[in-house]
Amino acid sequence: MILSDLLGSEVVDAAGHHLGALIDVRLEISGAPHQLLAETVVVGILVSPHSRTSTWGFERRGANAPAIIARPQHWLHRGMFLIAWTDVAQIDEGRVTLRDGYERRDPVLASTAHPH
Fold it and tell me: In terms of domain of life, where is this protein from (predicted)?
């Protein structure tokens, strides 16, 4: 499966109730960063209750500029949450079903900016 097959999929709970759309995945690199052929593992999915579009990176803490783009992005993705990959029970074409007892997590990434 490739990411583009998942993007925009409806996300539902175990009872079939609509929760939103899968708008991105969270990945983790196993092994040393910059290591040749380090394995990339899916650790979670981002679910937006109000939009099927990308956050354009504005889910990062402190990503507020340019305001003309940041404000609409934050409003569009209000209520967005992260689901651990282990909480995904089933993936079908256009639909992701979560396991009973899934946990909504904070979707915000820490800023990647480094102090100089």
Answer: Bacteria
